[in-house]
Fold each of these.
Amino acid sequence: MARCPACDQQVSPSADECPHCGIQIVGSRGGGGGGGGSKTTLMIVLAVLAGVAVMGMCVVVIGLALFLPAMGTARQAAWRSHARNNLQQIGLAVFNYHDVHQTFPPTGTFTADNKPHHGWHTMILPYMEQASLYNTIDQSVAWDDPRNRVAFGTPIQTFHNPMLRAPAQQFNAAGLALSHYAMNSKFGGPNKALRIAEILDGTSNTVMGGEVGSGFLPWGDPTSARDPAQGLGASSTQFGGVFKGGGHLLLGDGSVRFVSDSVDLKVLDALSTPAGGEVVGEF
């Protein structure tokens, strides 16, 4: 039983007024703390809920802070794997070309008056499931002749690095499809086709080509070649520059290596020549 705060007589806990003195009873329910107790309980519940909400938000924020970097790292790893696979597919096509022609493709073909004609990308198309596109190219005229405009405006996914997705990295101003890979300028040369027997330094010690991060050329361009001895970086004369820390290089045995951009330039110079006789260091 509760007591009336005025006359101190016992009253029912549910009474709204004292039957003895008629005084309105405030706060008698619940053993002397009814209204106040309810309010206090409500405040406690709200405080607990607010705490739970804050804790929930903290868990979400912490989870995102942990998840997003992990997701970004996983995406980078997937892109690197994709880029590596592209080079492996290119290397396989180059070797299939060698099986048929007994030479690797030249870096490009040029006319007698030294005008660009067709490039190595075009020559390997039949060996990478692009024979139908290859057959649409009129090789009696230069690659950039209007008659070849549609063919060389066709993007080829194997020639595209997944890291380079901006429109300007996919097509040039003329609408020609770009490539993110180039040949080693010393792996043969213009109008010069190299045979595997001529790689005296060893195929695993010779760069065939690699990925590039700037200065993109249309895949039909016969001048799509660079010198590995220029180092790995983001300039238009270098290989690499796509992924942090180095770049993927395709070697003469068809393997692909991710080489650090801090590698000694003497090593890259040795790797660039098929028959230079240099001692190749660690890379």
Note: The longest strand covers residues 246-251.
Amino acid sequence: MVRENGTPSQQPAGTAGDPARDSGGDAARGEAASESAPQEEARRATAIADPATGDAADTTAAADTPTAQPTRSADDAGPGAGSGPAAGDDPATGGEPAATGDARQRRKLKTVRDMLLSMAVITVGALFFYFVQPTDTGQDPVRAVDYAVEASTASRAAPYDLVVPEGLDEEWRATSVRYRQSSDHGAFWRIGFMDPDNQYVALGQADGPVRAFVNDFAQGAQDTGDTVTVDGREWAVHTGGKYDALVSEEGDVTTVVTGTAGAEQLEAFAASLAPHANQ
């Protein structure tokens, strides 16, 4: 190349258009690339190091073996971790597996069913026993008592002449007998009977205050002012909402015949009274 002043220009070495320089540059870059490959592998080996020992780890093992993930504790977990139900839990049963809840429900139902079956069996057995038990419809429901021994004992202890019924037929049944030497009404003697019509008739004797005794024993029956004479003995007639009564007074002793029976039965019972044989 000739400059305008006639001096030839010098071409700089290694400039574009020089084949030798181009081929030399390619060779240099190839060598640099070949030299940098081992260095890159070394850096990778250095990066994969054992945290505990600081030694470089086996790059082949690191490449071929999956890295184990560290186990996270409950403290490492974020807020709300572990608060949800576990897999297989039923939120409706408070975290209890659905299968366990169903089994418990079946046990409860079975217990209730067994209880009902037991009650049904007991009820059937009781009804069977009730209906097959033989009954005597003609049996007297009144339990009669024997007042003879009690009357003998009371007649010896009483401070007055004790009276007892005599000559009553078997349809008159004594149901109670009692003597008390000391009571609110003094020495107190009583016998309870059921008459042939299953009406109550009672005999009472006491040597305490008359009005209190009659009011208590005859259940509040009041004196009508009428009298009736039975076998020569005079009785005052009393009537009340619950009991009627015949009242006889002799000295300090008051004798009362009272009950739910009618006047005729009361008079029949009063006619049977006589001093006890031990008197």
Note: The chain is about 35% helix and 20% strand.
Amino acid sequence: MKIQKSMRFGEQEVKLLFALEQGKGPVFTIAQARKALGTTDASVKNVLSRLKRKKRVIPLQRGVYLFAPLKSGQEGQWTENAFSVVPYLVGTGKYYIGFAAAMNYWGMTEQLPLTVGIAMERQKKPVSAVQSKFVFVAKKRLGDYEKISIAGTNVNISSVEQTVLDALAFPEYCNGIEGAAKAVWSARNSIDWTKLSLLAKAGKSAVRQRLGYLLELLGLEKRAKAIEGKFAGFSWLAPNAQKAEFQYSKRWGLKINLKKEDVLEFQRGY
């Protein structure tokens, strides 16, 4: 039998927790805590430090905290807001949630990502909170994304089509090229193929080439033909895989360094 210790809160801690419970969202700043308590910076930091030890507030970044309500348990594990805290992490910059996290959201993979990938126009250090690691990927051009509501907070997430292209541009954040192949196959009935073709042709040639190869491999020849373009030199199919053994695909301008059966392994479960 597991015995749980009762948790005691001081007067100032209770005051702040009550204010946070009545607040509009789970994320708050040290300035908001100061306003709720009506006391000095030193006193506020002391209260926050005690609540942090009691797992009731979780630091997201300097001066920004996530409020973990009592229903999150004694360990303060609060996963419901993993996506909803993202706007507070990125500030005023343009962004979208993408990569493996977006693949899971759109039903392209059943795998629950422990890392939430966020595309931004600038670089930012990773942040760990709410049982997740937030990794920021710098992109000169963000691409296509949509606004959705998570736990009452509006967040940006890459569109189905952009998610596919990001999986091919950044396979290290999307379960590899194998994960990209599964994503395309899983989303084949929900993809806007005209949009995907336009986005692919407007982006990097290596991404278009990888997409074309996967479409051919998956038996989607009509879709593959729609994105064919001029030869732009040879690129690696899987830039992060072994490069000692490979074959050439002249049609797609690729150096194929993955076996077809490995790329299509996911289909064994279909």
Note: Confidence is low (pLDDT under 50) at residues 1-5, 71-80.
Amino acid sequence: MSNGRDFRAKLREVARARARGDAPQRPRPPADSVVPLEQLWPAAREEGFWFCRPEWPEGYPKADIPKKLPRLCAAFDVESMGRTPKPLFLVGLGRISPRGVEFEQYLAGHPDEEPAVLQAAARALAEVDVLLSYNGRTFDLPIIRDRLRYWRLPYEEPRRHVDLLWLVRKHYKEKFNMPACGLADAEQFVLGLRRPPDIHSSQVPELYERFLKIGDARPLEPILNHNVYDLAATTSLFMKILKEIPDVFSPSGEVGSVETDDLF
């Protein structure tokens, strides 16, 4: 890939400038015009798919990340047209480091681009020591695995996978008398946050179909925002759990304590 690193760095600079309000905001296009994705989102074409580098979502408190993490951790989240055998079209990844969270999104601009998204996302996930998800054990990972197999592409199990849904159920549901344990419930009761205006996950397939039908990227923008919110929430939950449940990581830095043995 030519100048891939330079281009990704440029995307990050543009996204940061927009988040700070330093970059001039482009005027919103007329309602009857077709808007390309790169006009709405820090995105660029790369190896047969859209590669995006969004910043931490505006209006969402930043996660308190410790200066030293025992392993390379990353949150991930998938957006799809439904459960298998429906295709996926977006894989989001949030790489966590003491510097902050670097988000990556792998987006299919058309269903034919799903294999390229899967391959790129699989390479990125394979670099991670500890993969973090919310209900990824029953939803996100099975979709990735099944879609890779559908396209006859190799699948590699994550080295470690922490599904935070199970930890929230075990440690917080009764404590906060939570009516349910969805991600929005965990944000409200465990983190004490209310997410900024966002779509519901049930709206995702319809919005993506609208994008495919009209070729206008505006229906994609709320999906991409929703994906980043989920990644930010998963990251924030994990940071809180690290502080409040000391044996999530053992002293040697290995995941797999009594609290998390059943999660891998």
Note: Residues 35-263 form a domain with the Nucleotidyltransferase; domain 5 fold (CATH 3.30.420.10).
